[in-house]
Amino acid sequence: MTNNKSKTLRGLLLGAGFIAIAAFIFTGCPSQQRMLDTGDAAQKVYVAPGEHDEYYGFFSGGYSGQLSVWGLPSARLLRVIPVFSQDPETAYGYSEETKPLFETSYGFIPWDDSHHPHISQTNGDADGRWIFINANNTPRIARIDLTTFQTREILEIPNTGGNHASSFVTSNTEYVIGGTRFSIPYEEDLDVPIDSYSDAFRGALSFIAVDQQTGRMNLDFQIVVPPYNYDLGRAGKGPSSDWVFFTTYNTEEAHTMLEINASRNDKDFIAAVNWRKAAQLVRDGYGTTMPGEYYHNYYSGKQGYAVNDVKNGVTVLDTREIDEDFIYYLPTPKSPHGVDIDPTGEFIVGGGKLATVIPVHSFSRMLEAIENGNIIDRIDGIPVLDYDSTIIGEVENPGLGPLHTEFDGQGYAYTSVYISSEIVKWSLETFEVVDRIDAYYSIGHLLITAGDNVNPEPRYMVGLTKTAKDRYLPTGPKQNHPAQLYDISGGRMQLLKDFPTIGEPHYAQAIRADKIVNQVAQIYEMEENDHPHAIRRITENRVERDGNVVRIFMGSTRSHFRPDNIEGIRVGDTVYIHLTNFEQEWDVVHGIAIKGANNTELLVAPGETKTIKWEPVRTGIYPFYCTAFCSALHQEMQGYIRVSAADSDVALSWKTGTN
Amino acid sequence: MIYSRPLIITILISLIIVFAHACGGNDTSERPSGQTGSAEPALSDFELEHGIGPVTERIELADEFDPDLVEKGRNIYEMKCEMCHNMEGRMVGPELGDIMERRSAEFVMNFILNPSGMVREHPVGQELLREYMTAMPFQNVQEEEARAIVEFLREYNELN
After folding, report:
1. Burial of residue A432 (number of CB atoms within 10 Å: 0-12, 13-18, 19+)
2. What is the pTM of this model?
3. From 3.40.440.10, 3.40.800.20, 3.30.9.10, 1.10.760.10, which CATH number describes the B67-159 domain?
4. Mean pLDDT, rounded, for A310-332
5. ipTM
6. pLDDT at B33
7. A interface test, pick of B72, B83, B133 with most A CB neighbours within 10 Å
8. How far apart are CA A313 and CA A308, in angstroms?
9. What does the domain layout of chain B look like in residue ranges?
10. Nearest by CB: A536 against B23, B79, B139
């Protein structure tokens, strides 16, 4: 029996051994098997700990109102830059310095819907100086400085309803453009029946000039156009760089149930605007001044409070009143969404949202058509060019609902297709689809690294999709929006990674890291701190009273505040705490939080001064502490403020350091 | 008996060897250099006396104080040092009123210019960190500014 058992055992062991050998020979190691399943995707997105990514990706936050910064290809979230929405973490929109950025002609607006980030350009390539982004809802454009990654300026756009066709820059950042998604009454009398749409409503295309030294924006002029919906825009490149292009839909001029009523016409238009000529017409006095209040908010110095520059009136070019032609309509099927210009500046690609083809216009043929007078109609003075005279190709079988196109500089275009949820790659030579790949799910914009530049870098593509559904671990009925990273360096598109993002990543751009990384500030230099309430010597720490206004001039370093014991504050006082961070070392941040403060904390970067407003509502001792884990003695970094009754005679006093 | 016990053992050992070699791709025995932190480089006599940092030679100190340099040093001291140091009595860091009697000018400059290196690698820096528990930060001070701070501290020491 024993011998038999032993034999059986040996047999089993041997059998198992041979099976293991056979399994190994035919399939390899378990870990290698996983690699085979996903190809080399993991290797391609792996950026070792401590190593840096090859690209910065700037993703709009959509309805979060912000701009998130990602490392690509690892898809690591580097930072969320607050732009159009308040951010309690950084006190953006809560601190006294940043609150003025949110002022508009409608009052303080603490939220918006940010859609299209666009990096400033030189000679048609992203240069990394600034990034602009539009607010869709209450029309504005923000400029973020890419040395501090800080929102420095927000400009309100008047006469506009839904600043969607924005904030695209021209080849040398001469202008940032904007276009109204909703046409609205444009005349002085705004209180009109909605039924008067065709008569009283107008569209506006905005041209915002950019100061090349400071980046400061200025609404140079607007063009009044027929009451369609102006959806997206792009500037030309190379030979077409004096032009910008906007898509329109709702040429039906519907003002209700657009889903049906604005989808009737077989063709709407791409509006081609010669911005250089328009700007010259403005200089030559063709413009009129349209009244209208709007806010221009910006920092006038390196630090300090953003200022509100309230403006009134904008110079307007009205095509109905100007004989010169500077804008042309290119008929384009059907309710086109995106309009994208290839790297050579020759091909104008419409995203024919409801069309069965991707229509491609030729810029040189457009110029010939203008020259030859191939004009089939005029609408409010705007020439409508003959479709056949400008079109050069129609990409067949692009899927259902083509939206947006970017380019690889190797002769191929990549178009996102919403309804069939895919990306199609097609040839700019044959206008034929050569490859297609699924998107998860319902793709809107896509980006290619430098894919809207004169010199695209055919490395990566990111698809920005609208629903995640089953792609990640579920987090309730609402999932974060996904993005998918693809490798486009080979012949075929390859999915590398699928990752959740912030808000709605509506559009995004990627720029090679070496164009930015060396200019990034590590500190705010104390010598250059021009904040009016900064302290530049720690001995200047103090508390001042002026009536009911109390200003605390406070300094911080590891690991204390000065002053940290303050008495003589009274109920009814408005207290401003101006905290200057005396650190001059990269990424050593101090914060301050006060019990009962009904707004937020402050987070103060090295060398920076920030202010929190606090109105204590009852007597007591109010602890405050550093919110940033700054040192081993972080938990010791604290203080007390004594708040006395409104009629108290407790003297104002402050101290640090002696019990 | 067809199969001997030694043969079975041999096959099993062979299998283990095959798997171990074929799948052992995550070998961690080789560390990148500079990651261990165990071996401290020996400091030179100059470094022991005058600190580790950009100042590697003795500097000339005139008997007379340069008033412009003193003023420049005072400005930087008040902006970037006084938050943590008293002239008399310890605070976050050691008192500085008599520092120029206790340390060389080069040592003070190297501590200002390379504080993280000093507390990590220099025995005096390590001892100070143990005592004060807060590492001195680099305050974005340039070499000629550190020289000015030394001039200010020298004059203070002389006058007080």
Report:
1. exposed
2. 0.89
3. 1.10.760.10
4. 96
5. 0.76
6. 41
7. B83
8. 16
9. 67-159
10. B79
